[in-house]
Amino acid sequence: MGDEILIAALVYVIACLALVLYQQKQTSKLRSKIEALTLLVKENDRQRESLKRELQELRTGTIGVGRRMLELEKQLAKQEARIDETSQQDPQARLYSRAMKMVELGAGVEELVAECELPKAEAELLLRLHRKN
């Protein structure tokens, strides 16, 4: 009976050692996985920060472009208002502008006199000036 207890104790000790070795092996695997995951998390954090900076730069750029567009729209509106104001102030200038367009399209002296109510001498002068350019 004494040998049986000794054998049982020995089997128990061997089983415990096997269990401890198995546990150490599993712990080692888990540590390796944890280290790999830690590296992945750090890389992910680095990429996230990089993307965050890029996004901020894009936002800043977009805001700048938007402001510039508003400035350009204001300038365009002012220019359009000036053009409208100028064209409404001087009807005689509109008449000559129309006559010049007609000359560019190939109108003759008689057409200018009839359509723009210009004196014949002015119509001839416009034609001569246009031909020189």
Short structural summary:
The protein has helices spanning 2-89, 91-104, 109-116, 120-132.
Layout of strands and helices, then pairs:
Blueprint: H1 2-89, H2 91-104, H3 109-116, H4 120-132
Helix pairs in contact: 2-4, 3-4
What does this 3D model show about the protein?
The protein is mostly helical and 133 residues long. 92% of the residues lie in helices and 0% in strands. The chain has helices spanning 2-89, 91-104, 109-116, 120-132. α2 packs across α4 (120-132) and α3 (109-116) packs across α4 (120-132). It is rod-shaped, with a radius of gyration of 46 Å. The termini are far apart.
**Sheet bearing the most strands, described?**
none
Please tally the helical runs, counting DSSP H or I stretches of 4 or more residues: 4
Radius of gyration: 46 Å
Total E-strand runs: 0
Low-pLDDT segments:
none
Order of helices and strands: HHHH
Structural class: mainly alpha
Quick check: average pLDDT? 88
How far is the N terminus from the C terminus? 131 Å
Strand content: under 5%
How would you describe the shape? rod-shaped
